[in-house]
Amino acid sequence: MNELLTSYKNSITGLLDQLLCTQQEAIEQAAGVLCAAIVEDRRIHLLGAGAHSQLAVEEVLWRAGGLAAWNPILDPGTSLVHGAKRSVSFERLPGYGVGVLNANRVGETPGETLILVDAYGISPLSLDLALECRKRGVCTIAVTSPAYGLATPENSPLRHPSRKNLFREVDLVINSGVPLGDAVGRVPGFAQPVGSSSTFCSCMALELLVLATVQKLVEAGAEPPVFMSANLPEGDAANARWEAKYAPRVRCLL
Fold this sequence. Notes:
alpha/beta; Rossmann fold; 10% strand
């Protein structure tokens, strides 16, 4: 067996084990917020503040075994479909996040929640989103790695003009544990790390949040709005009622 590939797999599983072991309390708290919002029929938004963070949002959109009750926001400005450099430009553009919130009508109804996925938590986009949500009374839950904010100099050009860190500007934080530099594979004879970790960590955090939320809904005696695989014979029929209920508020279900 290739020891290099095994080492990379062990690094990834180690990060996922660490996330589970250290973040259960945070995940339980966030799940309580989502459970209450679902029971009270309040809007829940989910947004990735950057191209690869957006992949985690796509992972839980219209997903077998996933929640139908949230509104995944897939912003075209930061999507890799339109170009990598273009995506980074929007991610680093101060003020752009306010426009994203406006375009998706975030904060128009009382008691909304925004789950914000950003592996690094220092970009103008992520801070714009968090700070503006605070102004609008939107509860914020960040899936991020505080290590980046703690290690990045305050005067770094990568930062938001406020120089603030995302993990300090939201209501709840799930520490995804993404290590500095993201890549965790080590190839002998090549100094630079290879093989990223952030998408694995972000997706794991969201899936754990889904499980914990469904658990709390069941304990509360509420039926969890969960999609069945559309590739099962009964899938389309099972999902039809959730689509009918949530499609008016979830743009990506249309």
